[in-house]
Amino acid sequence: MRHVAMLDLATEYELFRDELSTTVHAVLESQKFINGPAVVRFEDELRRRIGSSHAVAVSSGTDALLCSLMALEVGAGDEVIVPSFTFFATAGAVWRTGARPVFVDIDPKTFTISVEAVQAAITSRTRAVIPVHLFGQCADMDELASLARQHDLTLIEDAAQALGAQYRGRSAGTLGDLACASFYPTKNLGGLGEGGMIFTDSTDLADLVRQLRNHGESERYVHERVGGNFRLDTLKAAILLVKLAYWEEFTRRRQENARAYNEQLAGVPVGLPFVAPGRTHVYHQYTIRTPQRDALKEFLAARGVQSAIYYPIPLHLQKCFEGLGHARGSLPESEAAAREVLSLPCHPTLSDDDVTYVCEQVRLFFAGAEAGDASRSASATASQG
Ligand SMILES: *Cc1c(COP(=O)(O)O)cnc(C)c1O
After folding, report:
1. Which atom of ligand 1 is nearest to the CA of 182?
2. How far apart are CA 1 and CA 229, in angstroms?
3. What spacing in Å lies between the alpha carbon of 121 and ligand 1's midpoint?
4. Which residues contact 16 (CB under 8 A, 6 or more apart)?
5. pLDDT category of residue 369 using cuts at 50, 70 and 90
6. How far is the CA of 58 from the centre of ligand 1 (A)?
7. Are 162 and 282 in contact (CB under 8 A)?
8. Is-contact 80 126, C-beta < 8 A?
9. 90 CB under 6 A from ligand 1?
10. 86 lines ligand 1 (CB under 6 A)
11. pLDDT of 93 over the 80 cut
């Protein structure tokens, strides 16, 4: 039986093994483990590629979000609007500042935050909105930017899953007042450990987050505000510089996998990823949806195909946010997505034969399900008779 994994970091590693060894050795020899030259080089390279004025490397995508909120002095009494259907960090970072995460629903086609829902959730206490470019496609950024302007809100992109995605000719990471990226090993630009980046076109905000990542130090041992240790190690930056050379090719591979899935799953009764006009998708996840999700996942697993559920519990229903008073049923699109989504393997070293095998299994599942339905309804008819 064929085995198709969600990820294959070991095969990817073979591609960079020699370069990585050389790079790691060079950092060891330099003995500059903190704020070494690779950090600024990595910031500069990535900033130029996406077209942002400033990039500040930080310790993780989560810390990028936290540090951005701290720079805006978001805190107790403030509200920050976030989608409920996202990775935990989007809302966790808001909570940790003392502000209230205000959960809103998503657009069921793109899985990104609903602009109408954001509009309806704005109050006099709203300070910021964090749209998440979920699965690798940008949220409705122009509409959100116009809302933000009208209500004097700050827009923070959570671009952790979407580096490389385009929105009306601009790159994810350049569409908000601040943007956050993650280099967690499984992300599209994955490092060997934790890592993140903050992008902004504002020199003031860039200076602020630079201070905050280093305990709020404005000059040596002078602290005008309290920050944290949010630095990215030299070693990780040097490794990310190596990985950066493969990033665009890997993005193309993900997009080719997605195209093959789209072709071979056409006509199968599942929802395929919807790419909104004027956008490109970088397929951090290739996510389909079906009410028979759990049975399909089990069927695939029995045939050697891994799949994953991102995410099974929408954040407004998490125990830690119970105090915010969201009832089940209050954000129906997020709840339906949590029940129906299934991500299929889409990583850059997946082969064409892997994709074909996965699609065959998905088709087999639905052929069987139809046959099952037909026999059930036939017996129902018989018993009525
Ligand atoms: C991965 C991720 C983060 C957090 O990034 P880390 O580097 O793991 O801290 C935040 N938001 C989203 C949507 C993510 O996928």
Report:
1. 7
2. 48
3. 24
4. 242, 243, 246
5. confident
6. 13
7. yes
8. yes
9. yes
10. yes
11. yes
User: Is residue 376 pLDDT above 70, yes or no?
Assistant: no
Task: Give this prediction's pTM.
Answer: 0.95
Residue 186's SS3 state is coil
DSSP state of 73: T
User: First vs last Cα of the chain: how many Å apart?
Assistant: 44
Q: 165: which 2 tokens? A: 């995605």
